[in-house]
Amino acid sequence: MVDAPASLHAPADYAALMRRKRLYSGVIVVIFVALMASGFRLADARNAGGFIDGIGHVFDFPAEILSEALRDWRNLPGFLLEFLPSLIETLNIAAVSTLFGTLAAGVMALFSTRGLALWPRLVPVVRRAMDVMRAIPEIVVALVLIYLLGTGPVPAMIAITLHSTGALGKLFSEAAENADLKPAEGLASTGASWLQRMWFGIVPQVAPNWSSYALLRFEINIRASAILGFVGSGGIGYDLKTALQWGQGKYDEVVAIFVLLFLTISIVDALSDRARARLVRGGQPA
Amino acid sequence: MELHVRKVSKVFGTKAAVDNVSFSLREGGFVGVIGRSGAGKSTLLRMLNRLTDASSGQILVDGTDILALSGRAKRDWQSRCAMVFQQFNLVPRLDVTANVLHGLLGRRATLPTLLNLWSGADIDRALSILERLGIAHEATKRAEDLSGGQQQRVAIARALMQDPALILADEPIASLDPMNAQIVMDTLKRIQTEDGRMVIANLHTLDTARRYCDRVIGMRDGRVVFDGTPEQLTLGVARDIYGADATFSESATSTDIGALSTDRDYAAAMLDD
Known about the structure:
Largest sheet of chain A: none
Oligomer: heterodimer
Structural class of chain A: mainly alpha
GO molecular function, one term (chain A): ABC-type phosphonate transporter activity
Membrane topology (chain A): Multi-pass membrane protein
Number of domains of chain A: 2
Main location (chain A): membrane
Largest sheet of chain B: 6 strands, mixed
Helix content of chain B: 25-40%
Domain ABC transmembrane type-1 (chain A): 87-272
CATH class of chain B: Alpha Beta
Radius of gyration of chain A: 26 Å
Pfam family, one (chain A): BPD_transp_1
């Protein structure tokens, strides 16, 4: 019911507004181009062999690996079987971390969403806690924990769980912010406790979105779990690192591991895509 | 039940939504609160149920100031003071019976309720309430699959499940078509007369207030400007409540308040709501 600002009624003022908009866009483009150019210059200056000179040899190493694998292609099926247990270990680490991360993120999200939080004063505290969990890379946490707990899958699980909690918590909280508060309000009017209000009033609304994010996180965590194998948390990453460090003669193993990882991630990706589409569409066919 | 509202105010920012309101209700009855959108009717009801905290004042229920309650005691009061909303406020994905059983959430142990474990007696009571309101055949449907009028009756069933002394109804028929509006109002009236429960309903139309209420409280700009019987609700009084510039026609029988007024500001206020 409020009238639009009077200035917009005059065509001249409108034209001035548009000119200013265009000017801002121009400035942003200039800044972007400058950043790109300086970034390339820096990369070239810092790189030992020279960034521009090295770019032609980017494919030398993969070519070497592939040619050796092609020569010994008969070994591949055997290696695929041999590495299957470590692949399962990697998947296990990812699955457990995703599960715990999702549960923790759900709780933290409800504690950090304005209008829902049980203790509104703690909202910023919980948010900062999630920021910290999200900001520290998994590999840093894993390295510290491996130093403290020794090698094995547990440090990787804790590291990935922490990161998942932070990352999912923020997404979960954003989904919960958009939830319709009317059901929860109706429950509050009957004297329901906070837990009951969340469980019946909010969780059913956000469950499809939350599950969808959790599935996406599972894919990401498979990759994270594989990478953490490099620093000694077991799984297929450890085998990959060993094979790569051995160098020539084991490149067929490297390729077998890559094939396994690629297949796994593609399959999980395809399955979770379908599941997520179904969740978000609420079980309706396309 | 005796209810004394004493000098209750609610301030949002610098604006008083409810401004020093006092009234007393001694015996049951059907009380209508009327007024323009933004007159403070909803805020008043929400303070009674403690969904909104009052800025100052007292609400004494049988001697206890319910505005001073907190924690468990506040939830105990809420479980005795049922509320029905304009948008029904049910859990859309759950079935009708589960929604009715939610009336007991404040009185049962948390864990079993979260797992939807209810005693046979509780379920029987929920079903018999649905039976009484004529929607037992919808008991297993999802709440969201019901029509508005049916959903509002489920909300009333949830309220009855609370076995409340007081039922608050915040614009219970504002989202319903005239036929469903009548069914819902008749249901509320029946509950009030047959069970002897007190009902306080925010109503949009003079018409409905005159037909169902034993007592009418008129609010304007957060203040009580009328408190009396429907018979005392003359055209002059209505102008007081809805604004002196509002034009009324006595013959208007529409449930749409917009038809009662040709005032442009008034229509604008309705659209803002």
